[in-house]
Design brief:
By secondary structure, the protein is an all-alpha fold. The chain is built from 8 helices and no strands.
Length: 215
């Protein structure tokens, strides 16, 4: 309390402005109303937040990290993520050729996609047996079923589509960060962080696993 009371009021207002801008940016990203769809609006708020941050550092005597050191830290983090992620992604990709299921969802998806290919209805009434409810939209079953004509295997097709979808999301993460920061290094680090989260926190289940969630 003593440190807060002894701070000059103008330092307090700078910190307060920075906090308001940060909350505004986070709220816009979450979709709070009124939601601004223009990327220029996002970039303007982020630029204002960056300016307020620089002002706070100067006022409080905090030294900015030199650009060369910042680039070196980013490069080191990128290399570290590549080294840590590569073995797990390689294992997950090799695992795609295995006949056994990676997760119980794969068997469920294969059964219903096969039923669709056999001309059977995907959605059955719930007033009789066999009771096989499908609570997913039909698009994923149609896409996997159509592509399986070329591969000859529903399970492998689903896994390939899941892997391609994961890489596509990674590319979108890269493009989004690059658009907001104009830094390809930061964008690459963000995309690698996304891959690391999927490969590790989810137990690697969603890397090359047949499940419509990634699609």
């Amino acid at each position: 309390m003593k440190e807060v009371a002894n701070e000059p009021r103008w330092k307090y207002w700078i910190a307060y402005l920075q906090e308001i801008l940060a909350i505004k940016v986070i709220g816009m990203i979450k979709g709070d109303t009124p939601h601004q769809e223009s990327t220029d609006t996002y970039q303007a708020y982020i630029a204002a937040l960056d300016v307020s941050h620089c002002m706070s550092c100067k006022v409080l005597g905090i030294r900015q990290i030199p650009a060369s050191l910042h680039a070196a830290i980013l490069s080191g983090l990128i290399v570290a993520f590549l080294v840590l992620i590569f073995p797990f992604l390689l294992y997950d990709i090799i695992r795609m050729s295995y006949a056994f299921t990676i997760n119980y969802n794969e068997g469920w998806n294969v059964i219903h996609t096969s039923r669709l290919l056999d001309g059977k209805p995907l959605y059955l009434p719930l007033n009789g047996l066999p009771l096989a409810p499908v609570n997913y939209p039909p698009l994923s079953f149609i896409i996997i079923g159509t592509l399986s004509y070329f591969t000859g295997k529903v399970l492998l097709t689903g896994r390939l589509v899941s892997l391609i979808s994961l890489l596509a999301v990674s590319f979108l993460v890269f493009g989004t960060i690059a658009n907001f920061t104009s830094s390809r290094s930061s964008a690459l680090l963000g995309a690698l962080l996304w891959l690391a989260l999927v490969a590790q926190i989810s137990g690697g289940w969603y890397v090359g696993m047949y499940d419509p969630q990634m699609l």
